[in-house]
Design goal:
- With 1382 residues, the chain is mainly α.
- Helices cover 62% and strands 1% of the residues.
- The strands form 2 sheets. The chain has a two-stranded parallel sheet. Strands 3-4 form a two-stranded antiparallel ribbon.
- α24 packs across α26, α31 packs antiparallel against α32 and α43 crosses α46 (1016-1034).
- Mean pLDDT is 79; it is low at 1-39, 488-494, 590-598, 642-651, 1061-1069 and 1370-1382.
- It comes from Cyanistes caeruleus (Eurasian blue tit).
- Residues 123-477 form the Fanconi anaemia group A protein N-terminal domain.
Length: 1382
């Protein structure tokens, strides 16, 4: 009855085949199913009873019968599929039936009535192999593990074949099944992968297992090997667009997820598995030769490599450190024949995805080079060059360019090749063997940056260069046609000369627009690379176009080249005609439109950046960031390639030039830079919405590093930063400021990739400064001048510092300090105390107060409160103790001198309070180690004077109403206060040591001494401007700061020695004379000394006397209440005599010295109408006025020179001065007065002429030849007879004028009329005079011309020959006279 009641349930649960089925069917037909109990244990008892009964009848063990019937049911379940082909997964009905079967088998196992080993053995006897999912269910239910099943397989290869085909089917099916089944497929794959790993890569302790388990190990390894080969075959078909196969292979890559194995596999086994797999990948199908690798490796860069292969590498490399990965790569290269495509794509993956790989690869290359040259091993040399080139393909952001690596390795005597001739021969043999397979860019690198070779072995290099040039000729690439700015590190095939020339023109125009100078590379090309310059560069530059109405930069560049004779006249004329013809053609056809450029690369770049943003916000996907950045870099390279592919300066460290007043960006570059900056800001904000900066991963750092790797993008990037920060900063939105602040921090982090920046501040930059680092560059753009700029700079610097301190909070103190731009911390030290009173007192540090990064994006943020919160942080205060970040007194002054007082954020009283705090409380008492003055007033005064001068030399506060040459009145007031405080020192007493020279002169003369610039003209211009600034400071200081007192005998007298050293200053004697017993005598003595020691003081007094006299007399009366000192009264008398002489016709009294009375007369003449300058006044001078007339001529010539070099500043007219000089000269000629001594050097001339020349500035003295030659129309022939030295003076002046012209010092000013001030016409007139005068000169005139002959021959050979011809008799006569003496 029990059997009858259980029949149907047993059928459902077991469904045994032929042995049990008849019994169960009879029970089913009996109609007793309705009495089936619900107790499973009763069912199991019935089942066991049936099995035992049947087994007894058949004479077999019950367990054996159960196992065989289970196999029969498994086979039936696997065969009952609606699919026409065998698939690795079951359908839902099969899955349900198998589940019942497995449950029953598990129950039988528990009751020891099921034979597991027989079940595994019978499994292999099935007509068709089981479905993979059924095997997995048996494995996961612990009925028949996969390893046990494989152990019972009769033939290992058959098992391998079945498993591989099933696994491949599973991977292929995974792409076309429901989501639930995909998860099941992943579980099947992961469970079997664990079995393969555990059995295929057992530990050493397990290697002695029995043979059956060694068979399992073989099968597991073979399956993994076959499946890896299947994946690598799919890599080759990826470009054939076999999408299904690629997706299937990608599914198998889940096997290489390290997290899959967790604790179920021994770490050593896991590493062994991954190491073995990596070796198999690198050595798979090594059919490519080295020559193939040399030619094809550019196609194996990270972005061009199969994504399937890169994904495989990235999964495998996770199991190792970067160093271990590279060591494994090296081991494989040394011990196996490799697949170069796989090896080099692995190199690319490492350098792109692992930041540490760059230095490790450099170390590997150095090690391999050492081995190669030590053993003369060509294989190691091949490996070195292939790896170096492959890594360089990924761009300078991840590895140094090939050209730089080649120069560093072989460009100096310390290279491995330089030890002997044998090593040199080895190197050049290797390079020569590469030549037939080399691409043009690498050959150009080897030619342009050749290995260092000693002179005696130069023939080796020349032979190689000849061979390389032959190869270039075969490639139809001429080294002579190489572009001016061609990137030799690029791996792409050489650009055609036409295209490269267009890029060279674009680069040259960019440099010209920034500097307004012809680029040096263009000048050099016009001389040393003439074929390229004339055949390619000029045609690209002179392409016909419709010229704009207002000449643009392109036209200005062409005109500059034309003026420099770098464009032939006929070519220039042809260009203008072609432009005119094009203009006419355009006018006839207005419908002509510019071709539109495809936006596809730009849109692709935008899409890749958007994809990058999605990865950043998900920490689980950070491992994909490096690969995505490589894709972004590739898209960026393509976008830039449309207009400026590889448009980079040849030297890697060539400075980036930025015109700060008006940076110019090409529209295509600006759109790209804006997209990159926008993407950076969006990515930052998106990441910040989930995590603070210190938990955002390395994405932003890598993104900026990638940008910096595109060197042709840097000028546009830095120029755009200039536009945004320097020009548009106050108008930026708060989020823009946050994004830019974070961006510049990462830019500074990547400073090693960015060359120096030559920031041209335009007219405000008197002397070009040194190239700035990128941190110094963006700090210099943060200028605080107005209320708006102060608010912007405070917000920007606060955001930058807060981001920096949060982002790199986990760094060590040393690493953190190395990352910080000093200019940022110094700017905050200036801003925060200036704008917040709380920051000026003794700080109570609030270590727990932290400025939240997220709070900075709040629109209602109070900038001052946020900055004060940052200021109070203990970490920030610790930074202020570092010497590198301390703001010195000088730096503070330079920042303060930039402020426009009328537009300042502080009121006048607030600014005064700030100045007093900064000077008297912060910097004056502070030690010099902290940027202070050690309490030394003199040191503080010196720092202020230097800062004022430096600021005036470098700054142009355009738009602020402050002249460049002005001096800040408020800072000058602080200087005056300190100087007056210095005066309070105790007075000198007899016997005391002499007082030191005035501080101000020490400071000023230190600035003038040893100052050198690139050119003499630059030095001269700087000196003139410096002296003008000195004068402005001096006149603002009390006289006691300029003239001190000293003891002379028993008297205290004025010490004017230091004062006399300055030639451009005001009279400052009266206040200083208060310390003298007899003030009048002291002043008179000082003025008398001026006549010989410092005549310019008296000359200045004579010229400015009408303005000087009222204040002088008033001050004298106020101080002394006595008549003027004798010498002051004489000066007043000379002025009155001069005025009366011109106005009323009174006689002009003779005086001593004549030059001083001449100075007063000259000053009076300048202040009268032109009618007062007539000849009548000169004729009324007495017969004893010859010396006065000579001095008067000298002063008029100085006016002539001033009108020539600076007509607007001096207020004199050139033509008027010339006419007046000619009148004086004619008067001198009529009197027969000798005057040429004026043009002799001051050292050779005694008396008045020496004094006069010493009173002139250095520049006026240098330009005396200009004045002399301007007088040549007035020279009479009688002068040649009367003045024997006149010919030598005229010749010397002519030679000096030629030299001045060659040096560019007498070129016409831009605002002067060329017809009136043409120096060539002046030179021609002087030359004609000399050629006409030489034949009429007496013989004795030629004696003094002999020392000038050699100089004349170099400048004017024809004139020298004429002079030599007519001087020969004179020389002969001189020799005869010498013979007579003996």
């Amino acid at each position: 009855m029990c059997q009858a009641r259980c029949g149907e349930e047993l059928f459902l649960r077991l469904n045994f085949s032929l042995y049990v089925q008849p019994v169960l069917l009879s029970f089913h037909c009996s109609g007793l199913v309705s009495y089936l109990p619900g107790d499973d244990s009763a069912l199991l008892v019935c089942l066991v009873s049936v099995l035992q009964e049947q087994a007894s009848k058949l004479g077999v063990p019950t367990a054996t019968l159960a196992a065989k019937n289970a196999i029969a049911n498994v086979e039936r379940i696997c065969q009952d599929s609606a699919s026409p082909s065998r698939v690795p997964l079951l359908n839902s009905d099969q899955r349900k039936r198998l589940s019942c079967l497995l449950q029953t088998v598990k129950d039988l196992l528990a009751n020891n009535v099921f034979c597991r080993s027989l079940f595994c053995q019978e499994m292999w006897k099935m007509k068709e192999p089981p479905v993979l999912e059924a095997v997995w269910h048996l494995h996961s239910a612990d009925i028949a593990g996969l390893a046990e099943l494989l152990e019972r397989s009769p033939a290992g290869p058959a098992a391998v074949e079945w498993l591989c085909s099933s696994l491949c089917g599973l991977c292929e099916q995974a792409g076309d099944i429901p989501c639930g089944d995909v998860e099941l497929a992943q579980r099947i794959l992961s469970d079997f992968a664990v079995v393969f790993l555990q059995n295929g890569f057992e530990q050493a302790s397990e290697l002695g297992r029995k043979v059956e388990f060694q068979k399992v190990s073989y099968i597991c390894r073979a399956v993994l090997q076959r499946m890896l080969a299947w994946v690598l075959d799919a890599v080759g078909k990826e470009k054939q667009e076999d999408v299904s196969m690629v997706q299937a292979a990608r599914f198998w890559l889940n096997v290489f997820n390290v997290s899959l194995y967790g604790s179920v596999a021994h770490p050593d086994s896991l590493r062994q598995f991954f190491r073995h797999t990596l070796t198999e990948v690198l050595t798979y199908n090594p059919v490519l030769k080295v020559s193939d690798a040399i030619q094809m490796q550019k196609e194996w860069s990270f972005t061009r490599t199969s994504p399937l292969l890169t994904a495989l590498y990235r999964k495998l490399l996770v199991a190792f450190s970067v160093k271990e990965s590279i060591c494994q790569l090296q081991q494989v290269l040394e011990t196996h024949e490799v697949n170069w495509q796989h090896v080099l794509s692995c190199v690319s993956t490492l350098v792109v995805c692992q930041a540490e790989a760059e230095q490790l690869f450099k170390d590997l290359l150095s090690h391999l080079l050492l081995k190669a040259f030590g053993n003369y091993d060509m294989e190691n040399m091949i490996t070195v060059f292939l790896i170096a080139r492959q890594a360089a393909l990924e761009g300078p952001a991840v590895f140094m360019p090939y050209s730089e690596w080649f120069k560093a390795s072989f460009g100096n005597a310390g290279g491995h090749h330089g030890s002997s001739k044998k090593t040199l021969v080895f190197l050049f043999e290797f390079l020569s063997e590469l030549v037939p397979f080399e691409a043009a860019p690498y050959l150009k690198v080897h030619i342009m940056y050749p290995p260092f070779v000693p002179t005696k072995h130069r023939s080796l290099l020349l032979e190689y260069i000849t061979l390389a040039k032959t190869r270039l000729a075969d490639l139809k690439v001429a080294i002579e046609d190489m572009g001016l700015y061609e990137d030799l590190s690029a791996a792409d095939e050489a650009v055609q000369p036409q295209a490269q020339a267009l890029r060279d023109v674009e680069k040259a125009l960019q440099i010209f627009e920034n500097t307004r100078k012809i680029p040096t590379s263009v000048i050099e090309a016009s001389i040393f690379r003439r074929p390229y310059y004339t055949s390619w560069f000029l045609p690209a530059l002179l392409r016909p176009r419709v010229l704009p109405k207002t000449p643009d930069g392109h036209m200005a560049f062409i005109d500059s080249l034309k003026r420099a004779d770098k464009i032939p006249s006929n070519l220039y004329s042809t260009y203008l005609q072609a432009c005119q013809a094009m203009k006419e053609k355009v006018l006839q056809d207005d419908s002509k439109a510019e071709p539109s450029h495809s936006k596809e690369p730009f849109e692709q770049l935008k899409a890749e950046l958007a994809e990058l943003r999605t990865l950043v916000v998900d920490q689980a996907q950070w491992e994909d960031v490096a690969a995505q950045l490589a894709a972004v870099s590739d898209r960026l390279r393509r976008v830039l390639g449309d207009s400026s592919e590889d448009n980079e300066a040849a030297p890697f460290n060539s400075p980036v030039q930025v015109a700060v007043p008006g940076p110019r960006l090409a529209p295509c570059h600006q759109s790209v830079v804006d997209l990159l900056l926008t993407s950076f800001c969006q990515t930052l904000l998106a990441a910040s919405s989930f995590n603070p900066p210190d938990r955002q991963g390395p994405c932003l750092s890598l993104l900026v590093k990638m940008m910096c790797g595109h060197r042709n993008l840097l000028p546009a990037l830095l120029g755009r930063l200039c536009q945004l920060i320097y020009h548009q900063g106050p108008s930026l939105h708060a989020t823009h400021i946050l994004g830019l602040a974070a961006f510049v921090i990462h830019l500074s982090e990547c400073r090693a990739l960015i060359p120096g920046v030559e920031a041209d501040f335009g007219v405000s930059q008197a002397v070009p400064g040194k190239a700035l680092s990128v941190s110094e560059y963006w700090s210099s753009l943060l200028v605080c001048r107005t209320e708006e700029s102060f608010a912007f700079c405070l917000r920007f610097c606060t955001a930058a510092a807060a981001y920096l301190m949060c982002k790199f909070s986990s760094c060590s103190h040393e690493e953190f300090c190395a990352l910080i731009p000093p200019g940022l911390i110094k700017k905050l030290q200036y801003l925060v105390p200036r704008l917040s009173l709380e920051a000026r007192g003794i700080l109570c540090q609030e270590a727990n107060t932290a400025l939240s990064w997220s709070s900075l994006s709040c629109p209602s943020l109070n900038d001052r409160r946020a900055s004060l919160c940052l200021w109070r942080q203990a970490q920030f205060q610790e930074l202020l103790k570092e010497k590198a970040f301390q703001l010195s007194f000088r730096e503070w002054l330079l920042m303060e001198l930039e402020v426009c007082p009328e537009k300042d954020i502080l009121s006048a009283s607030e600014r005064q309070d700030f100045h007093y705090w900064a000077i008297y409380q912060r910097y004056l008492p502070a030690p010099s180690a902290a940027g202070g003055c050690d309490g030394d007033l003199e040191k503080a005064c010196g720092v202020i004077i230097n800062a004022i001068l430096d600021s005036s030399q470098r700054l142009d506060l355009g738009g602020c109403g402050q002249s460049k040459m002005s001096v800040s009145p408020e800072i000058l007031c602080r200087l005056q206060e300190l100087v007056l405080e210095l005066r309070c020192r105790p007075k000198l007493f007899p016997g005391c040591s002499p007082a030191r020279r005035p501080l101000v002169f020490e400071v000023l003369q230190e600035r003038l001494m040893g100052r050198q610039h690139g050119s003499a003209l630059g030095e001269q211009l700087w000196r003139q401007q410096e002296l003008l600034l000195h004068r402005r400071i001096l006149v603002g200081l009390p006289a006691s700061a300029l003239i001190t007192t000293c003891w002379k005998g028993n008297k205290t007298v004025l010490d004017c020695d230091s004062f006399f050293c300055f030639v451009n200053s005001e009279l400052g004697l009266l206040n200083a004379s208060l310390d003298c017993e007899d003030a009048a005598e002291g002043v008179s003595q000082a003025l008398t000394t001026c006549q010989t020691r410092c005549p310019v003081v008296l000359l200045s007094a004579a010229f400015w006397w009408p303005r000087l006299e009222p204040g002088l007399c008033c001050q004298w009366k106020r101080l002394f209440g006595a008549p003027l000192a004798q010498e002051l009264d004489r000066l007043r008398g000379w002025h009155g005599s001069s005025t009366r002489f011109l106005c009323s016709g009174a006689a002009f009294p003779a005086s001593d010295p004549p030059w001083l009375s001449a100075a007063f007369l000259h000053g009076a003449i300048l202040q009268q109408s032109p009618r007062g300058r007539g000849r009548e006044a000169l004729e009324r001078l007495g017969t004893d006025a010859e010396q006065l007339l000579v001095a008067l001529l000298f002063f008029s010539l100085l006016d002539l020179i001033s009108a020539r070099i600076a007509p607007k500043q001096e207020g004199v007219d050139f033509q008027t001065s010339l006419e007046w000089s000619l009148e004086i000269l004619q008067c001198l000629e009529e009197r027969g007065t000798s005057w040429p001594l004026l043009f002799h050097s001051a050292e050779r001339d005694p008396g008045q002429c020496r004094v006069l020349r010493s009173a002139a500035s250095d520049r006026h003295t240098r330009l005396l030849p200009l004045a002399f030659c301007s007088l040549t129309p007035c020279f009479q022939r009688e002068l040649l007879q009367r003045e024997p030295t006149f010919l030598s003076v005229a010749l010397q002046m002519y030679i000096q004028l030629l030299q001045l012209f060659v040096e560019g010092e007498v070129l016409p000013q831009s605002d002067q009329d060329l017809t009136e001030h043409d120096p060539l016409e002046l030179i021609s007139a002087a030359r004609r005079f000399l050629l006409g005068a030489i034949p009429h000169c007496p013989a004795q005139s030629f004696v003094s011309t002999q020392p000038l002959l050699s100089a004349c021959e170099g400048l004017d050979p024809e004139l020298a020959a004429t002079l030599l011809h007519f001087s020969q008799p004179a020389v002969d006569m001189e020799l005869e006279e010498e013979l007579e003496l003996f």
